[in-house]
Amino acid sequence: MNDAVLTHLDSLGRARMVDVTDKHVTFREAVAEAWVHMRAETARLIVGGGHPKGDVFAVARIAGIQAAKRTSELIPLCHPLLLSSVVVELSLEDEHRVRIVSRCKLAGQTGVEMEALTAASIAALTLYDMCKAVDRSMQIESVRLLRKSGGKSGDYQAPSA
């Protein structure tokens, strides 16, 4: 490896992208989640198909997928990755909460945690954007990495919430 330690700082302390040239290609997967809290009326409007902007979940799902693919353009020093799979799922968990789960996969030299977190975050923001006219009190909460596998740092599983 070109660097003894993976770091975003060069020898002069300046920010730079980590050099992963000599890292081995491995299968990597990351899963992240976000929660959107809303009024019960807003949730009923979304799942009942009566929202004036159409299928809110479908638009948020597409936005999350697009965001995962463009993470390197949004997060400084993030590597551009050729993702092999991005899945974004939205579900009404109770009358006030939507859970968003994103899953990103690839075979590569660096992980996909940022892509999964970006997908969940942007899907949540899209949900908010589409529903803000009917519920400005919505809250996006608990964006977090649930698990990751692959790579030199090994596997990670978040503690239960």
From TrEMBL:
Keywords: Lyase, Molybdenum cofactor biosynthesis. InterPro entries: MoaC, MoaC_bact/euk, MoaC_sf, MoCo_biosynth_MoaA/MoaC, Mopterin_CF_biosynth-C_dom. It comes from the Bacteria. Pathway: Cofactor biosynthesis; molybdopterin biosynthesis. It catalyses: (8S)-3',8-cyclo-7,8-dihydroguanosine 5'-triphosphate = cyclic pyranopterin phosphate + diphosphate. Its EC number is 4.6.1.17. SUPFAM superfamilies: Molybdenum cofactor biosynthesis protein C, MoaC. Coiled coil: none annotated. Substrate binds at residues 77-79, 114-115. GO terms for molecular function: cyclic pyranopterin monophosphate synthase activity. GO terms for biological process: Mo-molybdopterin cofactor biosynthetic process. Residues 17-151 form the Molybdopterin cofactor biosynthesis C (MoaC) domain. The keyword Lyase applies. Belongs to the MoaC family. NCBIfam families: moaC, PRK09364.1. Catalyzes the conversion of (8S)-3',8-cyclo-7,8-dihydroguanosine 5'-triphosphate to cyclic pyranopterin monophosphate (cPMP). Homohexamer; trimer of dimers. This is Cyclic pyranopterin monophosphate synthase. It comes from Pseudomonas chlororaphis. The gene is moaC1_1.
